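quick one, 162 residues, struct below
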Amino acid sequence: MQLTFLGGTRTVTGSKYLVTEGDAKVLVDCGLFQGYKQLRLRNWGRPPIAPATLSGVILTHAHLDHTGYLPLLVKHGFGGKIYCSEATNDLCKILLPDSGRLQEEEAEYANRRGYSKHTRRSRRGLRRCANWARRHFDVKTKVHRKIDCMTTWEDWDEDGRR
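---
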């Protein structure tokens, strides 16, 4: 098993950890970078891995620095399952669309004030991300019956035993 840190190192935001074993690639958390501009700019680049190659995503909790990059991961080709607790699922159905709406409003405000690099096209992209979260998030989630809160990584076999 190999663990690769793709975010959440040398900073407390942008949590993304890739767990690889054989052909299976699972991303643990899929967070936005927040805070300083040099961190936020990392949200605009291509994902650090090819999203279509992922077997799935596991979310530890609903904070945006652990879930906020999901719409962009899908935009870049991820189509697999997202696993999380029921509480994380419920919160993400609220947080992800709201985050997209707030980012869109901030871009419109910056455009009106003349200091934005956002175009109308990029604002439409934010709206599409928010709409994706509203439509698909709870369809693509599932809770592992043996784990109430996925805050730790444990090795479970196919029968649900450690």
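Residues 138-157 have pLDDT under 50 and may be disordered.
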